[in-house]
Specification:
Blueprint (H helix, E strand, L loop, with lengths): L1 H14 L29 E4 L7 E6 L14 H14 L8 E4 L8 E5 L6 H14 L7 E5 L3 H14 L19 E4 L3 H27 L7 H12 L5 E6 L1 H6 L3 H7 L7 E8 L8 E11 L19 H15 L5 E11 L10 E4 L5 E4 L6 H16 L3 E6 L4 H6 L4 E5 L2 H14 L3 E3 L6 H4 L7 E2 L8 H10 L8 E5 L5 E2 L9 E2 L4 H9 L3
Parallel strand pairs: 1-6, 2-4, 2-5, 5-6, 9-10, 9-13, 12-16, 13-17, 14-15
Antiparallel strand pairs: 3-4, 7-8, 8-10, 11-12, 14-17, 18-19
The structure holds ligand BES, zinc ion and manganese (II) ion.
The site of ligand BES has 15 residues, from helix 11.
């Protein structure tokens, strides 16, 4: 007995490998998981030359003047009534403004939504999202009109799709949203508007929905293995896609001590999922998007306090948004080459969990003193970055992760934190943020941080002691595992992956932050 213990110990010390495999590679959960159910039906989105009779009317306004409208019948008396209401309410058509009118002619409702003058694509989308939310419990079908062209109608439709999202699939007692009619965008050339929508915005809205769904799902439903299954389903039939999934046995063989280590307190096995999409004419080397996919972050043995722990079901938001972006790019057949990576593990305390003070190592052999098991995101990203660099030879790597509470203190929910070692990549990311509406603010990566993360016994430690620039120290740690010659950036989305209140394109709940940004980045060329 004594001998056996001793030799086991010796083996563990020699290999610095994670503890023996958790028994279950396939796990369906103890207890009773909720039955799979559908969310309340969203409005179907269509395009037409004229308004269906009896629908609620949305008019997209750039200022206070009611424009001439294609495809909508408003007689003189009705136009006058609307104009009088605009004046009485001092409605100015600025971005974000709305005015809801009832009792005009036979229209069940007329909703004015403002974009401001010469609106961007994003401003038009926001008007669409605002309309979707205002009309959430409007039982009538909806018609949207405005004095704009076909591309703009597609922009508005896109915003409507993002704004009407909801996650209520587990409500069973009369609180689901009421059944609602379709939304039709009217204009002179509906076929052109519909093509613009289908070629870009519809796949992007689908990617955002996937990301939000994955993050909103509770952790008894989404864990590494079921995350992989959901993403496979979402990608079914998408062109140019190939999927690679490493399970624990494969990762162990490759020496991926951090990905296996973080998951070893959980019976749900870790996974590394890689999805390559290569569009026609795209370059040989892909851009890698590598997302943190902690399907639940209890903190591990460095257990988090109880309040708000439930929000840690969303600690896989980075991985979810990576996969959402790949869905968008593939389904729109974008001429780009990307590899989306999800570093998936559940961080739980258990007799088999990693202990603070444990030393593990990544695939490349670099060693880590794991001083805080709650700094787990950076650990799984270390192995994921090393693997994708070796196996896919990307021309750039972008990490996206709900990495630190510290970034929330710095940037709140207004910006995600951007850390970059490459000026060109940083500039491209900032530009993609402005265009997509998912904005970034750059934070420092100073060489002094190396000192803070030094370990006495290993190459690096996963957390510093005492106060410090927490978000930057996390970024430094991740960067330690990326070759200096590979353009690299890291996005800390801990402040933006969940919203407490609705904004036009983002209902309350998990936001899907990063899908629109990464989609835009991939399309923005070198
Ligand atoms: N997932 C958390 C970060 C987080 C905090 C996300 C709040 C969303 C909202 C992460 O794994 C974590 O626990 N980070 C620690 C790092 C620390 C131990 C160095 C933190 O920020 O406290
Ligand atoms: Zn975490
Ligand atoms: Mn943590």
């Amino acid at each position: 007995m004594k001998m056996r213990t001793k030799s086991l110990l010796l083996a563990a010390c020699l290999s610095l490998s994670p503890a023996p495999a958790a028994p279950a590679q396939s796990f369906t959960g103890s207890g009773v998981a909720p039955a799979t159910a559908a969310n309340s039906a969203e409005r179907a989105i269509g395009f037409a030359a004229s308004a269906p009779a009896g629908s609620a009317l949305v008019i997209v306004m750039t200022d206070a003047t009611l424009p001439p409208l294609d495809g909508v019948t408003l007689n003189n008396a009705e136009r006058q009534a609307v104009s009088a209401a605009i004046a009485a309410a001092s409605f100015d058509g600025k971005a974000g403004s709305t005015l809801s009118l009832r009792g005009i002619g036979a229209h069940p409702r007329i909703l004015l939504v403002g974009t401001g003058t010469t609106p961007s694509s994003l401003a038009l989308a926001e008007a669409g999202g605002k309309a979707a939310q205002e009309l959430k419990s409007e039982a009538h079908a909806v018609t949207v009109a405005g004095a704009y062209g076909d591309a703009s109608a597609a922009d508005v439709a896109y915003g409507f799709a993002l704004g009407q999202y909801r996650f209520d699939r587990y409500k069973t007692v009369d609180s689901k949203a009421p059944a609602t009619g379709a939304v039709t965008l009217v204009g002179a050339n509906p076929a052109a508007a519909e093509a613009a929508f289908n070629n870009r915005w519809k796949p992007l809205a689908e990617g955002v929905r996937l990301s939000r769904d994955l993050a909103n799902e509770p952790a008894n439903v989404i864990y590494p293995e079921s995350f992989v299954a959901r993403v496979r389903d979402a990608l079914a039939g998408a062109p140019g896609v190939s999927i690679e999934v490493l399970d624990e046995a494969a990762m162990r063989k490759l020496g991926m001590g951090t990905l296996v280590g973080v998951g070893q307190g959980s019976p749900r096995g870790s996974r590394l999922m890689l999805v390559r999409y290569r569009g026609a004419g795209a370059p040989d080397a892909p851009i890698a998007f590598v997302g943190k996919g902690i399907t639940f972050d209890s903190g591990g043995l460095s257990l988090k306090p109880g309040a708000g722990m439930g929000n840690m079901k969303g600690d896989m938001s980075g991985a979810a948004s990576v996969m959402g972006a790949v869905v968008s790019l593939a389904k729109s057949r974008a001429p780009v080459h990307v590899v989306g990576v999800a570093a998936l593990a559940e961080n739980m305390p258990d007799g088999n969990a990693q202990r603070p003070g444990d030393v593990t190592r990544t695939m490349s052999g670099k060693t880590i003193e794991m001083v805080n098991s709650d700094a787990e995101g950076r650990l799984v990203l270390a192995d994921a970055n090393e693997y994708v660099a070796k196996a896919y030879k990307p021309r750039a790597i972008v990490n996206i992760a709900t990495l630190t509470g510290a970034v929330v203190g710095a940037l709140d929910d207004s910006y995600a934190g951007l850390f970059a070692r490459d000026e060109a990549l940083s500039a491209r990311l900032l530009a993609a943020g402005a265009v997509s509406g998912e904005e970034l603010w750059r934070l420092p990566l100073h060489k002094a941080y190396a000192e803070r993360m030094k370990s006495d016994i290993a190459d690096i430690r996963n957390s510093a002691t005492g106060q410090g620039p927490g978000a930057s120290l996390g970024a430094h740690f991740i960067g330690f595992f990326v070759d200096e010659n590979t353009p690299w950036a890291h996005l800390d989305i801990a402040g933006v992956n969940r919203s407490e209140k609705a904004s036009p394109l983002v209902p309350k709940g998990m936001t899907g932050f990063g899908v629109r940004l990464l989609d835009q980045l991939a399309r923005s060329g070198d």
